[in-house]
Design a protein that fits this description.
alpha+beta, Alpha-Beta Plaits, 2 domains, 4-stranded antiparallel β-sheet, about 25% strand, globular, DUF1697 domain-containing protein
Amino acid sequence: MTTYAALLRGINVGGNKKLPMAELRTLMTGLGHDFVRTYLQSGQAVFTSGHGGTDSLAAELAEAIEERFGFSVDVLVRDHAYLRAVAEACPFPAAELEARQLHVTYLSEPAAPERYADIDPAAHLPEEFRLGDRALYLYAPDGLGRSKLAEALSRPRVHKGLIATTRNWNTVVRLVELTAGEA
């Protein structure tokens, strides 16, 4: 059995795509997953499973959500080792920053640098971003809501064809903990 985190994009935001966490837990248990827990209301579930890989688990969950709730949701599934590696590879001094200043965008595929070639890093300073393994790290000193760089990075053409979902540093760390079995 492997412990995973499912990251759902764009649910329970602004009254759209409402997906109660208790119903998500029930749905995932019905799919044969064990020890299903949710974290916050914004689309994180931790579970164990002995079948499938991350891509097939994500596709299975996305399909089940659409069937049950009537709307499509992008889903990424990542295991503990990957989540820990992303946290450990952070190119910014996470321990010195407030959680609202540091974000990780998890991507469905490796982030090709040419996708970001039109974004002028100097134009957004002191905000910065770095690419990782199927992850993009964003340092936004004034928070995500005021970030012009986050706005540029979220344009549809930048991540066209990718699933991309962003989490603040507190959530990044908590998902590492939860998938390690620490409650």
